[in-house]
């Protein structure tokens, strides 16, 4: 029995969708379906049934899944302990999309050089999704926003960057008053279900600004491109990404200081992959030091194409 098949079965159950599980793993839905069918043949029972637009476990599936979680976790821990004193093994990283499109690629380059024998698995998700996945033992580290609650003592946190929210506007508007822009220009809202979107919404309410809202989406890179195309302005975390370096957009600081969005690395203190996690943290700190993008971004007006 292939442990990876069991791991993907658990992902299907947790997401309720073969297509979503395939997207997160980076394979086709057909490949995931074939893995589930292989498990069903080997175990001699049907594991999943369709319920509307989702899939749910059968009665036998529930029994298998309860044991499968422990098997997957124990196998991963066994492999990690076997390689405890080695610079090899496997590291499962979960990350928010904005980190994956900004800081993380450079960190992974440094990490791959420092640990060439380590296999790195990467899964994207929201901070809440990543925290839940980390709790279930399906991730080793999560690059995410700091939870809004006090962390349990079993977890450790390493801050990577603090990002205040800024007005993102076409570069030709860089010298205008940020509040006036938010009141006057079409508004592209960052998804209010996400941490940065919630911060932006709180700021608008506190400043008593009712924007002329045209769009709402959860992709910061897409928002930057829409601003570059003249579709409006936005209120977003001040991320640093090479992907927006060629865009003609300005980041305009707000007149009232805001609580920054804090993202970093979260992991369980007793993780058997401690050596690899410490190596990842060191690589991240080195990249931040070399690029000057770490800890706290400055609240000032910047125009991209020359600076993002």
What does this structure look like?
This protein has 308 residues and is of the alpha/beta class. Among the domains are: 1-82, Arc Repressor Mutant, subunit A, CATH 1.10.10.10; 163-260 and 298-303, Periplasmic binding protein-like II (D-Maltodextrin-Binding Protein, domain 2, 3-Layer(aba) Sandwich), CATH 3.40.190. The chain is built from 11 helices and 14 strands. The chain has helices at residues 3-15, 18-25, 29-43, 59-82, 97-100, 104-114, 127-135, 178-184, 195-206, 220-228, 274-291; strands at 48-51, 54-57, 88-95, 117-124, 141-145, 155-163, 165-170, 186-190, 212-217, 233-237, 249-252, 261-268, 295-296, 302-303. The strands form 3 sheets. A 6-stranded mixed beta sheet has the order 4-3-5-12-6-13, with helices on both faces. A hairpin with a 2-residue loop joins strand 1 (48-51) and strand 2. The protein is globular. The termini are far apart. Pfam families: HTH_1, LysR_substrate. This is DNA-binding transcriptional regulator, LysR family. GO terms for molecular function: DNA-binding transcription factor activity; transcription cis-regulatory region binding.
